[in-house]
Amino acid sequence: xxxxxxxxxxQTTPNFAQLIEKAAVLxxxxxxxxxxxxxxxxxxxxQWQKTLExxxxxxxxxxxAALQQSHQGKTLKKGFDEI
Length: 83
Hints:
- There is one protein chain.
- By secondary structure, the chain is mostly helical.
- It has a domain at 36-72.
- The chain has 3 helices and no strands.
- The longest helix has 26 residues, at 28-53.
- The N and C termini lie far apart (58 Å).
C-alpha cells in the first residue's frame, strides 16, 4: 500500500504542525476519536465549499429584488439588534 507521509503533504501552518505533535502524545484510542471527528469536520467543510461555489439563482433573484426595493425607498435601514 502506497501511503502519503506527513512530510509529503502540502505545507501546513505552524499551528497545525504543533497540533499534530500534541495529538501524537495521546493514546491511540483518543487519537482515533480525534481523527474520526477531523474527517467528519473536513468532509463537512469541503461540502460547504462545494455548495457555496455553485450558482445561486434564487438567492441572486432575492438580492436583486431587495436592492430594487431599497432604491425605491421601500425598505427601512435597521441594525441586527433592531430587527
